[in-house]
Amino acid sequence: MEPGKVQSEGGLNVTLTIRLLMHGKEVGSIIGKKGETVKKMREESGARINISEGNCPERIVTITGPTDAIFKAFAMIAYKFEEDIINSMSNSPATSKPPVTLRLVVPASQCGSLIGKGGSKIKEMRESTGAQVQVAGDMLPNSTERAVTISGTPEAIIQCVKQICVVMLESPPKGATIPYRPKPATTPVIFSGGQVRADPLAASAANLSLLLQHQPLPAYTIQGQYAIPHPDQLTKLHQLAMQQTPFTPLGQTTPAFPGLDASPPASTHELTIPNDLIGCIIGRQGTKINEIRQMSGAQIKIANAMEGSSERQITITGTPANISLAQYLINARLTSEVTGMGTL
């Protein structure tokens, strides 16, 4: 695909932000000695390249700029990684050169467009660029983003990124995105008063109200008939729900806090939803309800339709934080359906 085609399809050379997930070693390679490599990449590509702070095994590299600047930055990163592979091979007996691999972090709401109906779009990308493209089935922890892995030659990767940019421009994210933030080895719990506690279970149900109080911004905004927490509160509520989860969230095979058996007691909350709106909560093949379960850490059961009833009962089980977040996510789905805001 010619760069000109990307620009005509994606709106004339618009500004875009792409997030990459990298291991510490890869980040070191991009930064270079005394930051010389990243400085050169910034200057030559014209893109803004930011690297997340923090002592984490993984880091987020954010590339922002006009599409042509982004493609130049990606080209430089892909060729740098290929150079690293060639250098490492000179010291090893391996004869076949492994492909260059990049991991993009993409809002889950855009992944459907990347995959296409029945996988048609991702298949077309693989065939037209020669790159391997995989979209992770699960969202990254505590976020609404998925990892998209691209591997192949630097040339194939650049072509593939161009096509992904076109899709992302044509299908912007829907609703609020909770970005993935890599966690350090141990995560302290930060209370609203600013105190830091290393004990994850100290965040009890009482702290849910603490987190949602004393904020300069309103904790909730009323939208139609539903109360929607402010995005800042949503992130805090989400973090608290994950810290308190009495069940293992989907896609998480080990307990969040090994060696600690105690977890907040689970309680149950029931909702009734009109039959004609239940579909927007369940989603195609249960995708939406599974996302809500995964994000909130709550167990959610939807009762079968009762004959003669125009409503369905939903039972939410978990800690108060889990239940609050599940309720918010369900309300947000209903609001988007009722107000015609599109799907979250």
Describe the protein's architecture and organization.
There is one protein chain. The chain has helices spanning 3-10, 24-31, 36-45, 67-89, 108-115, 120-129, 154-170, 205-211, 231-244, 275-282, 287-296, 320-339; strands at 15-23, 48-51, 58-66, 100-107, 132-135, 145-152, 189-190, 196-197, 220-223, 226-229, 267-274, 299-302, 311-318. The relative contact order is 0.10. The model is unreliable at 1-12, 186-229 and 248-262 (pLDDT under 50). The protein is elongated, with a radius of gyration of 22 Å. Helix 11 (287-296) packs antiparallel against helix 12. It contains 12 helices and 13 strands. By secondary structure, the protein is an alpha+beta fold.
Kindly, what is the distance between the CA atoms of the first and last residues, rounded to a whole number of angstroms? 31 Å
- Proportion of strand residues: 15-25%
Query: On the 0-100 scale, what is the average pLDDT?
Result: 76
Structural class comes to alpha+beta
Q: How would you describe the shape? A: elongated
Rg (CA only): 22 Å
Helicity, as a percent range: 40-55%
Strand order of the largest sheet: 2-3-1-4-6-5
List the total number of helices. 12
Question: What is the structure about, briefly put?
Answer:
With 344 residues, this protein is of the alpha+beta class. It has twelve helices and 13 strands.
